[in-house]
TrEMBL record:
Protein's recorded name: Uncharacterized protein
The species this protein was found in: Paenibacillus glycinis
Lineage: Bacteria, Bacillati, Bacillota, Bacilli, Bacillales
InterPro entries: SAM-dependent_MTases_sf (IPR029063)
Length: 114
């Protein structure tokens, strides 16, 4: 979006399915908004579905899902999140624990930003 270059302008620009929230860097998001604005007719509008996270700044891991693998091991997915309101970024850390025969055999972490 920050590289948007179209030959014409529009009365309405719609950014679907909260895809604007995939931009996790504030400066890049601002450049994208500037480019979108350049492609609006006078009096035009841009529609961007957004949300304010309700699970903000959790201090403890919360179990979200559990499941069984084909080999009988249990997978437990836990998460913790935080929001940087000035930067308008939500960070989610997920922990995937693999348990077999009552013992923890592996842990994998992933981080995402919206």
């Amino acid at each position: 979006m920050q590289e948007l270059r179209l030959a014409r302008t529009y009365k309405t620009i719609y950014i679907p399915l909260a895809s604007f929230m995939c931009i996790s860097d504030r400066d890049v998001a601002m450049r994208a908004l500037e480019q979108i604005f350049q492609h609006l007719d006078d009096g035009g509008q841009v529609l961007i579905p957004l949300f304010v996270p309700s699970n903000v700044n959790k201090k403890e891991w919360t179990v979200g899902r559990r499941g069984m693998r084909d080999d009988g091991a249990e997978v437990i997915v836990s998460s913790i999140s935080s929001v940087q309101f000035h930067e308008q970024v939500q960070r989610s850390d997920d922990r995937y624990e693999i348990i077999r025969d009552g013992r923890l055999i592996d842990t994998v972490f992933s981080t995402s930003k919206l």
